[in-house]
User: Fold this.
Amino acid sequence: MLVRLTESNLVLARKLRKCELRINVEDLEALKELFDKLEGSHMETEKQLNEDPAAKEAEVREHLLKVESPEKTCVDYEGTTQQLVLQFQTKLDQLCTETQTANPNRLLQLLKQRMSCPST
Assistant:
C-alpha cells in the first residue's frame, strides 16, 4: 500500500508539475503578447512624437513669415511718411521765404497759382 501511495504521489506530483509548467507557459505567452502590443504602441507613439516637432516647426516658420510681411510694409510706410513730411516742410519753407521777400502783387499771383494747381 505504501508503494502504491508513493507511486500515486509521484504520478500526481508529475501531473501537478506539468500543470504548473503549462500555466507558466500560458502566462509567459500572454506576457509576450502584451509586450508585443506595448512595443507596437511605443513605436507608434515615438513616430508621432518625431513627426510633431517637424510639423510645429513648419507652422512656426509660416507664422513668422506672416508677421514679417506687415512689419516690412510698416517700415516702408514710415519711410514714405518721412519723405512726404520732408517734402511738405521744404515746400512750406519755400513758401515762407517767397512770402517774406515778395511784394504784395507777387503774393497774390503766387496764391492764385497755388490755388489753380493743387498738385504742385
Remarks:
- Residues 2-116 form one domain.
- The chain has one domain: 2-116.
